[in-house]
Write a structure and sequence with these properties.
Distance between the termini: 26 Å
Number of strands: 8
Oligomer: single chain
Structural class: alpha+beta
Order of helices and strands: EEHHEEEHEHEE
Bound molecules: coenzyme A
CATH topology: Aminopeptidase
Shape: globular
CATH class: Alpha Beta
Strand order of the largest sheet: 1-2-3-4-5
């Protein structure tokens, strides 16, 4: 297991096939999918395909969402991190979009914020960009709250159509390196 980052409470590493049970616990929960406009996962086979897709992204782009684990228990709590978009996203190409998803039982503990700060800090030091992007469902207040805490600025709305995702009036956020609150 290759650890990429460590924070006070968390270990951050690439997602592996052995994470399938934890991943399934998270992604089969309808509440987790409330603002993602995607049906919850209904089988572990489907979950394995998602992990394989992420592993393809690691190989092709050197980065994708990363697993976030509790340092004390070793439990995979969720995922967080930067996805590279070669295809147009709100009119932009070759951009990194930041996102996160955690098991419902671990919301409200600050894990999304703690892992986001560590990954964005790593990103600005290791990826040759000065801006990261993020998007949310317009009613996903918890997600927008995290973005604002880190320094992301709301820039407007756009209609997202990407694979299974289709969200009207999706929010668009940008984080300039100089605005990052680590
Ligand atoms: C979006 C999502 C990750 C937000 O989770 P969250 O628990 O609200 O966010 P955090 O993990 O950063 O926790 C924040 C809160 O934890 C609390 N907290 C408890 N202990 C803490 C600690 N040690 N450090 C920091 N915050 C702590 C704080 O009250 C904080 O809220 P505040 O900033 O208003 O004070 C979660 O709702 C989720 O997984 N949703 C489903 C997937 C999804 O919608 N993803 C986003 C798509 S755009």
């Amino acid at each position: 297991m290759k650890t990429l980052l460590e924070t006070e409470r968390l270990i951050i590493r690439e997602i592996e096939l052995t994470d399938v049970d934890d991943f399934y616990e998270m992604d089969s929960d309808p509440e987790v999918h409330k603002y993602i406009d995607q049906m919850p996962i209904t089988s572990k086979e489907e979950m394995v395909k998602v992990i394989e897709m992420l592993q393809k992204q690691y190989a092709e782009n050197g980065i994708a969402r990363w697993a976030v684990l509790d340092k004390n228990t070793g439990e995979m709590l969720g995922w967080c991190g930067l996805k590279f978009f070669r295809e147009p996203l709100n009119g932009l190409v070759n951009v990194y979009e930041h996102g996160y998803r955690f098991k419902q039982k671990h919301w409200g503990k600050g894990y999304a914020t703690e892992s986001s700060k560590a990954i964005i800090d790593w990103g600005f030091k290791n990826l040759k960009v000065d801006t990261f992007y993020a998007m949310t469902h317009p009613e996903n207040e918890n997600s927008m709250h995290i973005l604002r805490k880190i320094g992301f600025e709301f820039k407007g709305f756009f209609d997202l159509k990407y694979g299974d995702f289709e969200i009207e009036k999706c929010t668009w956020f940008e984080l300039e390196k100089t605005n990052f609150k680590s």
